[in-house]
């Protein structure tokens, strides 16, 4: 393989002749080779858009030659459209507050721009990674800005996935509205509820998550681009500082705004903690729903069996006929992972010191995958599980007839003490609640049948009449 020589502060290094990355990315790849986790693709896209906005602005104010600026903008657009992502060789975990990611981008765009101008990669006399691509910028303003843009681009699909889940749960709410079953508290029989009401409660919880995720985008729109190293804007023309956000707003289609205090935007990462916390909250909701689906579908003969989940794959290499609730199990694992990632985001955000947080790469490596994975998990849960759930109405009825929860309905008629005694007899004799009630002459068979099937008993304010 042919190589070219590049140099930096520390000396020379051989770089593959056709590589778009340069010496700074190559050193970082060697220094931070700790995992196979790459820089998230949305962060690459967002950072390319930031570079394009900067190049456009520098051309407008006369600080960047038109031919160089046009070439950088074209290279940036290519990267934003998914090209050359294999040239981003720096791992997700890196020291330097994201400098290695920024330098990797500067080098890729510079070398591609050189190529567009008729030169060969490494000919930095045509386009320089720092003097041209990084002009008027610092890692400390472009990296946090790109991270915010990337988070917004992933936040909206996550909110939309929650909307799809909410709708699917509401469809099941309507489908199961007439199926009265035993409600349970602490896994013990309580009072009647409809299967539809259970799914309605799931939908309400998801609706709250959807709304919270939708609203938090507003906080992510405040960016510190133009603040350069510490937020004072040193090295950037004042015209650049006031115009570059408008360029990025046009390129991203996002209502971005310059942070009123660029020093605050450079120092503090609390907005990422807020977003991560809301992503975690959505994961917790999914954990509750997934756990309930697993429990309600347990069986097929020795469990609850009140609902049946779609059968997706054989469940055992040794037990014939076994089918497992694999989608809720997968979602559960994703939710646990999101919760762990939230802790990493929180730890990274609090570790900032004075004018900068050096640990934003850890925020990016956890927040962005958490948002993306959770959105995918939600959509799979809807498509492969929720929409195909069937209710086992007879099983629900059977449990209700045998449940001591019936006596709660009767307590207002016959008193708590009398109802408790009948419930005790049911448990001691292992006879059905139905038989005990009929034997006691409290209700006729027709009245009991109405009690067990009427939705009225599950409505707000029912008093047992």
Compact description:
The chain is mainly alpha-helical and 465 residues long. Helix content is 60%, strand content 7%.
> What fraction of the residues are assigned to beta strands by DSSP?
5-15%
Structural class: mainly alpha
In what order do the strands lie side by side in the largest sheet? 1-2
Number of domains: 3
How is the biggest beta sheet arranged? 2 strands, antiparallel
- Number of continuous helical runs: 17
Gyration radius from CA atoms, angstroms = 30 Å
- The strand count comes to 8
Q: What is the ordering of alpha helices and beta strands?
A: EEHHHHHHEEHEHEHHEHHEHHHHH
Overall shape: it is elongated
Determine the CATH superfamily of the largest domain: Fumarase/aspartase (Central domain)
Helix content: 55-70%
CATH C-level label of the largest domain: Mainly Alpha
Distance between the termini: 87 Å
Low-confidence stretches: none
Q: How does CATH name the architecture of the largest domain?
A: Up-down Bundle
CATH level-3 fold name of the largest domain:
Fumarase C, Chain A, domain 2
The average pLDDT is 93
Question: What are the salient characteristics of this protein?
Answer:
465 residues, mainly alpha, Fumarase C, Chain B, domain 1, Ribonucleotide Reductase Protein R1, domain 1, two-stranded antiparallel ribbon, 7% strand
Would you spell out the secondary-structure blueprint of this structure?
Elements: E1 3-8, E2 11-16, H1 23-31, H2 41-60, H3 66-80, H4 99-116, H5 129-133, H6 139-175, E3 180-185, E4 188-194, H7 195-220, E5 222-223, H8 238-252, E6 257-258, H9 262-267, H10 270-296, E7 307-308, H11 326-350, H12 360-384, E8 390-391, H13 393-402, H14 406-414, H15 416-429, H16 433-440, H17 445-453
Parallel strand pairs: 5-6
Antiparallel strand pairs: 1-2, 3-4, 7-8
Helix pairs in contact: 1-4, 2-3, 2-4, 2-6, 2-8, 3-4, 4-6, 6-7, 6-12, 7-10, 10-11, 10-12, 11-12, 14-15, 15-16
């Amino acid at each position: 393989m042919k190589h070219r020589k590049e140099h930096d502060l520390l000396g020379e290094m051989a770089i593959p002749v056709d590589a778009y990355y340069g010496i700074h990315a190559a050193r970082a790849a060697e220094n931070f080779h700790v995992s196979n986790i790459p820089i998230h693709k949305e962060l690459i896209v967002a950072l390319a858009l930031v570079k394009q906005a900067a190049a456009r602005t520098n051309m407008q104010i006369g600080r960047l030659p038109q031919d160089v600026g046009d070439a950088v903008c074209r290279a940036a657009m290519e990267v934003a459209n998914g090209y050359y992502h294999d040239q981003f060789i720096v791992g997700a975990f890196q020291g330097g507050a994201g400098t290695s990611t920024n330098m990797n981008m500067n080098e890729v765009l510079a070398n591609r721009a050189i190529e567009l101008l008729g030169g060969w990669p490494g000919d930095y006399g045509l386009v320089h990674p720092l003097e041209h691509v990084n002009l008027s910028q610092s890692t400390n303003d472009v990296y946090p800005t790109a991270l915010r843009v990337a988070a917004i681009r992933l936040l909206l699909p996550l909110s939309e996935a929650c909307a799809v889940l909410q709708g699917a749960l509401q469809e099941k709410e309507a489908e199961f509205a007439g199926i009265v079953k035993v409600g349970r508290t602490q896994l013990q029989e309580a009072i009647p509820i409809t299967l539809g009401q259970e799914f309605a409660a799931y939908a309400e919880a998801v609706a709250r998550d959807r709304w919270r995720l939708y609203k938090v985008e507003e906080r992510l729109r405040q960016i510190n681009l133009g603040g350069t190293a510490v937020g004072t804007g040193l090295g950037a023309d004042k015209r650049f500082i006031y115009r570059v956000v408008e360029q990025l707003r046009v390129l991203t289609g996002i209502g971005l705004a310059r942070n009123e205090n660029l020093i605050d935007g450079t120092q503090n990462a609390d907005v990422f903690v807020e977003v991560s916390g809301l992503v975690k909250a959505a994961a917790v909701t999914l954990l509750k729903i997934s756990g309930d689906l697993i429990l309600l579908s347990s069986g097929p003969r020795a469990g609850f069996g009140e609902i049946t989940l779609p059968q997706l794959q054989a469940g055992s290499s040794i037990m014939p006929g076994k089918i497992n609730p694999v989608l809720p199990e997968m979602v559960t694992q994703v939710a646990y992972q999101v919760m762990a990632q939230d802790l990493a985001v929180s730890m990274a955000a609090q570790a900032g010191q004075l004018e900068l947080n050096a640990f934003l790469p850890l925020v990016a490596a956890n927040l962005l995958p958490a948002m993306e994975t959770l959105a995918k998990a939600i959509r799979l849960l809807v498509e492969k599980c929720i929409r195909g759930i069937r209710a086992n109405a007879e099983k629900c009825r059977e449990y209700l007839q045998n449940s001591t929860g019936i006596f709660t309905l009767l307590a207002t008629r016959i008193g708590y003490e009398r109802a408790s005694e009948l419930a005790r007899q049911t448990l001691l004799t292992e006879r059905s609640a139905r038989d005990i009630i009929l034997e006691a002459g409290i209700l006729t068979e027709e009245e009991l049948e109405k009690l067990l099937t009427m939705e009225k008993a599950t409505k707000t304010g029912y008093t047992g009449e």
